[in-house]
# Entry
Amino acid sequence: MKKARIQTKTEAEHKLKYNILFATPEAVPFAGTGGLGEVAGALPKALRRIKTSDIECRVILPLYGTIRQEYREKMEFLGSCDVPVANHFEYMGVLTQKYNGVTYYFIDNEHYFKRDSLYGFYDDCERFVFFSRAVFEALRFIDYVPDIIHANDWQSSMIPVYQNAIYHREFMETVLTIHNVEYQGHYGLEIIDNILGLPAESRHLVELDGDTNLMKGGIETSNMVSTVSPSYAEELCDPLFAFGLDQIMRRNRHKLRGILNGIDTNIYDPSKDKFIETNYSRTSLEGKAINKAALQKAAGLPVREDVPVMAVISRLVPAKGIDLMVETMDGILNEDVQFILLGTGDKYYEDWFRGLASRHPGKAKALIEFDTGLSHRIYAGSDIFIMPSRSEACGLSQMIACRYGTVPVVRETGGLKDSISDCTLGSGSGFVFADYTSDAFYHAVMNAVTRYRDKENWAKLVKHDMRLDFSWKSRAKQYQAMYEDIITYGK
# Structure
């Protein structure tokens, strides 16, 4: 085992450079299930590219069994030790590799992480409590002293708690980003003693309404709490959106920030996307029509340029507004339109969309799966993108759709409100409705279909959307400002 090095810096050294350790349960391309993985894969790269930045951001995540061999072969082993968790000690190995200029660290424990998926196991609490402790223990093996550990969602929300209650590392601050407040790490009180290992005087940090809430502990103890859009930051203080944490959020409102996510514009670029039928750009839109015809053909729909293709790429769960589609899509498909859905989720919704396709042959296709290449082809080949979410912390699909010249229909909530402006009466980037009702949704879709028939105005709207800047460049500067405030002012 390598000898632990001194983990402190003089105050003068501390001010020279900001080191950010981004602790996350997932990061693209190694492991990802949604927006968090994309953020963890893109934000550190964007921070590195800020020319005036004095930030070095590195990433630490579990070494999942699903990580591909091509990445494992490039990892270097740094060391190992035992980590206290659940009243015993567990092996921890630390590995590293550099990818796209960013240094990644991986926490190895086959008992916890060598599984066929990332989440959804009976011992998820213990697995991610181990990961949170392991982040601190791994610091003895890496040549890097973080000024800030940036935790993400409930799976790493114990990191601020452990810094506050156990580790007390000098000159080190913490930030917690909430990507989805619906998932909080909610368990019984017995885990405080059986798994968390907190001292008695710190138990209150994670107690809420007679249970244990790991996200609550992270909110209370972190120096800053961020979330993934300004509107979602406001919604987190509202009992209608906060899933029981609204009082905790209001108490900590002084350290709450909302920063809209971006997308990786290198991955999502129709001018060089290798997944799509042919490349195109806002100055040469002929290729979009070719992609549309290819998508219609592959989906078994009539190849017609004059009919709008509406698309959904989503998890099929209530929060995504799927019930609004259940109430209205049969009526919408009575119009001269086509519809393609790609996604998986609740079995009821999966079966319902299969039934929709069978009721409207030649007009609807339900693809109950998820395929990255296919999602790119749908973004490129469709005309209208539907996101009627009941709640949406940020959302990336509406931004990706704009990038590919596919006009979004969205509900005015969270990041959808912050990223898409209504164009019904003229300028704007999409069709936005406020009330969470089937009538409001139906009229927004019909407004989009009507605008589509006006080819000249539709082409202007498509080009306008493709010019929008949803890159991480400006977002990264907002994170830079937040990190500087944390270093300068602390809590």
